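[User]
Protein folding is very new to me. Any chance you could explain this protein sequence and its structure tokens? I have pasted everything here:
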Amino acid sequence: MITNTFPKDRPLTVAVLGSSGAVGQELLQLLEERDFPVKELRLLASARSAGSTQIWSGHKHSVKEVTQGSFKDVDLVLASAGASVSRKWKDSIIQSGAVMIDNSSAFRMEQDVPLVVPEVNPQAARTHKGVIANPNCTTILLTLALAPLAERWPIRRVVISTYQSVSGAGARAMEELKQHTQSVLNGDIPKSEVLPNSLAFNLFLHNSPLNTNKYCEEEMKMINETRKILGISNLKLTATCVRVPVLRAHSESINIEFSEPFSLDEVQQILGNAKGIHLIEDTQSNRFPMPTDVAGKDAVAVGRIRQDISEQNALELWLCGDQIRKGAALNAIQIAELLLSYP
């Protein structure tokens, strides 16, 4: 019998699919840090990474090539190996009786797959049929700020500009930025192999493929996923996504237009009490959130909260959040913890 639920009377057998990547490494760290109940850990990756070893909880674990039998007796699969890999192994995972929390874009917009940010829509996780999707990194950070405000005032329109760190492109891109920065300082002209352009002392518009409406896939992910998570299908959103020379942690400039007047003091109070948010709002010193404030941290930092002087019912704010952590691995672990809490 396939149940796709967690046993409540014992620790879990956990498989990490894509364990050698940046998010996979963060997943392993968080499983240990948060004392997740792991009975057995299986590290799964492509044939290229198979055979290597990784240290977890003080013990060596061999990375194995994922096969049809890799998910036998597994309770939880934390997948972070890309959409094509997730699609390939989805049926095998579900048929094994495991729950798959998928960090790729493969299933996010499928109607019967819940898209979950635990602080925002935890109830959605209960509806899963073996797969729960982890939202895009920028979407997770955005909805943490939007959701508590939307509960107080109806939101009419949101305009977002992102400043996305190289960590969103993976560990190899992070290493390339380090090398290219040193090359420029040495007077050389770096040649990109991982990213389409060098990020050293540079930035460029997000390089995901353009749709026919001239919005890139990253921008449309933010728009469509935010609507699904908040449960507001007609919410007006527009986004411009930019890759910047920051190693770790994304930033977002957000303009929120409400359908009615709002109070700045109440906004501060709501965000200050919101789960997963840390306010950094020092107007006297002109000090607001920076990527270095949140790198390696769980909370998303929010600040620069102000009235939009061009529109009476519009609010401006700024946020920074660790893309690898809350924008990916931490959110996945929190979803698993949420499932453990269910009776």
